[in-house]
Amino acid sequence: xxxxxxxxxxxxxxxxxxxxxxxxxxxxxxxxxxxxxxxxxxxxxxxxxxxxxxxxxxxxxxxxxxxxxxxxxxxxxxxxxxxxxxxxxxxxxxxxxxxxxxxxxxxxxxxxxxxxxxxxxxxxxxxxxxxxxxxxxxxxxxxxxxxxxxxxxxxxxxxxxxxxxxxxxxxxxxxxxxxxxxxxxxxxxxxxxxxxxxxxxxxxxxxxxxxxxxxxxxxxxxxxxxxxxxxxxxxxxxxxxxxxxxxxxxxxxxxxxxxxxxxxxxxxxxxxxxxxxxxxxxxxxxxxxxxxxxxxxxxxxxxxxxxxxxxxxxxxxxxxxxxxxxxxxxxxxxxxxxxxxxxxxxxxxxxxxxxxxxxxxxxxxxxxxxxxxxxxxxxxxxxxxxxxxxxxxxxxxxxxxxxxxxxxxxxxxxxxxxxxxxxxxxxxxxxxxxxxxxxxxxxxxxxxxxxxxxxxxxxxxxxxxxxxxxxxxxxxxxxxxxxxxxx
Length: 487
Ligand SMILES: *Cc1c(COP(=O)(O)O)cnc(C)c1O
Prior knowledge:
Blueprint lengths: L53 H13 L21 H7 L2 H4 L11 H18 L3 E3 L5 H18 L6 E5 L5 H8 L3 E5 L9 H7 L4 E7 L11 H10 L3 E6 L18 E4 L19 E3 L11 E4 L5 E4 L16 H37 L15 E4 L1 H4 L5 H10 L6 E2 L8 E4 L7 H20 L18 H6 L9
Parallel strand pairs: 2-3, 2-4, 4-5, 5-6
Antiparallel strand pairs: 1-7, 6-7, 8-9, 10-12, 11-12
The chain binds pyridoxal-5'-phosphate.
């Protein structure tokens, strides 16, 4: 079998199962109950369904699932992605029939419990962030960014001054410039200082009356706290701009600082990162958006409202709203999981999450800094960024070391991001890993660093123990072949 988008399937037979006549179930003979189907609609030939037994199907999918790597299999230190354990109590609650089986068109009188969950989650997120209004509509972090930037655009239009540009630090996630371009803004890059954080002077220089907003991630994607954020916010506000906070990295500061107190006007929350709902291949996420009071009228509809008698409803009666961001009210199952997580931990527990996430990242920083180049040496927040500078002289690069980790049973860290660090290795352990796991990971990393000295060639061959070795990732992402050839 030929290459599938650069992804060599080494055993084509794993897909070619079954034999004519095999089946997994017996459909009862309908006998005389056969409905009369008009001749023109009758099939001329049998449908091309697979002929496989139940056992073959079960084995096929179970075998494929074992080739996957997920947080339930092992350590997954993918920086900026917060791959933490998803507590199973979240699943128990989301699986309750009254939550799982409701239909989005059910009348509010029959969905009071679900609306209460949405109301309480929005309240909890407002409390955590210090924001006034929260919309649960956005389906992901990037969708939350888009929603927040549309809110900013609408608010500035209401002032008669929509403006043209958005400032974005050079450490930003790629979704930030994409979101602002979708809102018809030009992205203007602001360079970070030698210390890897924003310099208020650079922001002041770039700030003018054409700038609608600045988009800031705090801690930034170097894992560093933007200590001058309040000064930066003042500079932007003084010239009539707004401050958008990319809240994907809330795992470092939740319970410790309310982002609104740092001068942010808008923030998105990645429920699938900080609030432990599954993501990646594991399920849908959600990217609620919180805003300060002045921006509240512009949030998307429908919104959950509470009447004087305490009953809830979904309302579209917000004339300044940017409108709908999606068909229904949001990813409801994800909301139930996030609220369960928040309630199970309580305020003190959420603060512990941040503290332990930061402690774990600094533990890895301290244990690995003699073996890998650390471009920014100050204490980090929830993630730490190394580079391949020490190994590059032996022609061993970040990709080689990431692939070598796979042979040792770990998911690789984020690689080559943030872009301002050449050969970046971005490690986010999260708070849900114990010290023994962190130590095993350190041993693997140190062993790879010494292999880079003693036998650098061997690292170009890794991974050798996985079913797929080094696919052409760009080709596989840009031109995926999603059907099996010949079927
Ligand atoms: C993950 C992430 C996003 C995007 O979130 P998605 O849910 O993947 O759309 C944006 N910014 C940062 C800093 C992130 O880590």
